[in-house]
Design goal:
Strands 1, 2, 3, 4, 5, 6 and 11 form a 7-stranded mixed β-sheet that branches. This protein has a 4-stranded antiparallel β-sheet with strand order 8-9-7-10. With 357 residues, it is of the alpha+beta class. Helices cover 32% and strands 22% of the residues. The protein is built from 13 helices and 11 strands. It has 2 domains: 3-205 and 348-356, 2-Layer Sandwich (Ribosomal Protein S5, domain 2); 210-345, Alpha-Beta Plaits (2-Layer Sandwich). Bound molecules: adenosine-5'-diphosphate and the ligand N[C@@H](CCOP(=O)(O)O)C(=O)O. The ligand N[C@@H](CCOP(=O)(O)O)C(=O)O is lined by residues 14-15, 20-21, 108-110, 112-113, 146, 148-149, 227, 230-231, 276, 309-310. This is Homoserine kinase. It holds the Pfam family GHMP_kinases_N. It is an enzyme of class 2 (transferase).
Length: 357
Amino acid sequence: MPRSFHISVPASSANIGPGYDVLGIGLALFLELDVTIDSKVASETNEDRNNCKLTYSEDSEGFATVPLKSDENLITRTALYVLRCNNIRSFPSGTKVHVKNPIPLGRGLGSSGAAVVAGVILGNEVGQLGFTKQRLLDYCLMIERHPDNITAAMMGGFVGSFLRDLTPAEIERREIPLSEVLPEPSGGEDTGLVPPLPPTDIGRHVKYNWNKDIKCIAIIPDFEVSTADSRGVLPQAYTSKDLVFNLQRLAVLTTALTQSPPNPDLIYPAMQDRVHQPYRKTLIPGLTEILSSVTPSTYPGLLGICLSGAGPTILALAIDNFEDIAQEIMNRFSKKQVTCRWKLLDLAYEGAQVSHT
Ligand SMILES: Nc1ncnc2c1ncn2[C@@H]1O[C@H](COP(=O)(O)OP(=O)(O)O)[C@@H](O)[C@H]1O
Ligand SMILES: N[C@@H](CCOP(=O)(O)O)C(=O)O
């Protein structure tokens, strides 16, 4: 009996200033997968060694560059990881996955988080494994190892998350190099090895309220910064002064963003950060001055501004004056020879969804 279903996963913006690796918001910009499984069309899908014919819509971000072999593409490679952990070696014959991706790659809007969440859900659905979202998060966290984007994409809304203390054996399992977790792209034979199963209940999260008047302005430069590179420029240790600076702001920000009316005098300073943004300026031309270029007094309606995820996108939270705020930031970037586009986005309150058709 042919089966078909649809998966949608939101983009996300992580950190929101002081909440490095902790805070995230799901954004209403959705990675979408249309999946059909029909053994009668197996001949069309068995060109791929794992029985999966993968296509992207032409208007997808990354259309020209993303790999289409199932053991090279992040979405299907992740799905294969979930399947193989559960003793299923490949997709059912006749699997077709069509992807529409409006999330810009490598810009700090959680494209890889969304791809990993979509891949884990894809594995769960094709393998009919019946995992809860909480267990699916464990699988995601074996691949993208910071919980902020993954949790926001899976659960939606405004979330805070952490990883529970793991036992030494669990730590060893979770720290296995990614190359040994995800199936290695190769032309060779499947080795039959079962990849490491994720420890249970790794991620803990809470969903905060969000004042729905607050909109997200994403100013997206036309260059990529890989999250790995952007984490690579961060120090190994911090002063207690800088940590206390962030902790104080984090504690205030999570409630300040729920209040009505939102208070810019509280939110703007509470979105300052000393843990990641100052170090990332080496990768993003003009970052420090861009972050101070708009304030609630110069642009009424603005609430706060920060780097989105690992950058280079800038996230401004506002209730008004969206176009002027975006234009000012784009002008600042253009002085550094960087062109940008911008999007006005609401939160994605529900997170990842599957619908059977
Ligand atoms: N929809 C997608 N399909 C395939 N690969 C993707 C997709 N989205 C993201 N990726 C992979 O993730 C990389 C970007 O990840 P990363 O550096 O973490 O940036 P981001 O901030 O966008 O998450 C891309 O270069 C690509 O390899
Ligand atoms: N906390 C992470 C978030 C990375 O987000 P992304 O959208 O850039 O993948 C970090 O700041 O490194």
